[in-house]
């Protein structure tokens, strides 16, 4: 299971019109670049995923809507849930980290299948799924995918975690809907997400940009999202700027001392680990008490409001298919003079 506990990593318009002139976006997609849906020569639906590493294509022909799927990522769970197709999920990797109530309510009908490093092959085979939805984080297909395929299990690669626009990740609702035979419903849901997201972003095009310090050290490295990354796009669309962010999609690494200098420029500090209080943050590193951003009012916020006791965080699960709600949270944090309401994923560290 992909467990995102710490990230290491507009004009108001109709979703269906955006990026159609961008050759990198498959026909029929508004934002997503790494999958496409088309018709095979025999009239059946065909889903194609495109590897961001080498452009290799994984093709899945849909004879009929699936009845059972194994999800190796929590974002696959969230996508099925978004279209009301939780009942199709028969197995999940890292079940105890899952936040989606529709799946949890199924109880024993959903099995734990182990993690991608060491999945339970016997369990997966016994479930007899129509498809195992897999993912990768590096440049090569994981060994467990090759093993499952050698055992006769149909595995399909999904690269949503490599998409860098929040609406591109949400568009994978359509991929899961094609599997479930619910494309019309998914298009309606996705267009609504786009409309709400772009309406919020439109209101922020002329605001004063707020400067944001991101993250804390992870495994002794402090990662700053690249300017073209998933998280940076959220901050940009919310009227903010990530301090220290470099060009491109990849994260860069800074020292705590460099972060101290950035903190002097910051209006806010977002995503400081998995913490839920200011006192806990100050105990993490002796230099943190010197970060001047801490002394500013309403400056410390984390995306851990919907984390569970096992360490799972719905920000990286349900949030993947609800980017409009994440953007709304961020705008209320960065520009409270323009937006108010109840936060969905964020909490203030006090």
Explain the overall architecture.
This protein has eleven helices and 18 strands. It is an alpha/beta fold and 350 residues long. The strands form five sheets. A five-stranded parallel beta sheet has the order 6-5-4-9-10, with helices on both faces. A five-stranded mixed beta sheet has the order 14-11-16-17-18. It is globular.
- Alpha-beta content class: alpha/beta
Q: Kindly state the mean pLDDT as a whole number? A: 91
Low-confidence stretches: 3-23
CA-based shape: globular
Order of helices and strands: EEEEHEHEEEHEHEHHHEEEHEEHEHEHE
Please report the distance between the alpha carbons of the first and last residues.
Answer: 32 Å
Total DSSP E strands: 18
Number of helices: 11
Major sheet details? 5 strands, parallel
What's the arrangement of strands in the largest beta sheet?
Answer: 6-5-4-9-10
Strand content: 15-25%
Percent helix among the residues?
25-40%
Radius of gyration: 20 Å
Kindly summarize this structure in a few lines.
The chain is an alpha/beta fold and 350 residues long. The chain is built from 11 helices and 18 strands.
Please give a handful of descriptors for the protein shown.
350 residues, alpha/beta, five-stranded parallel sheet, five-stranded mixed sheet, 18 strands, 18% strand
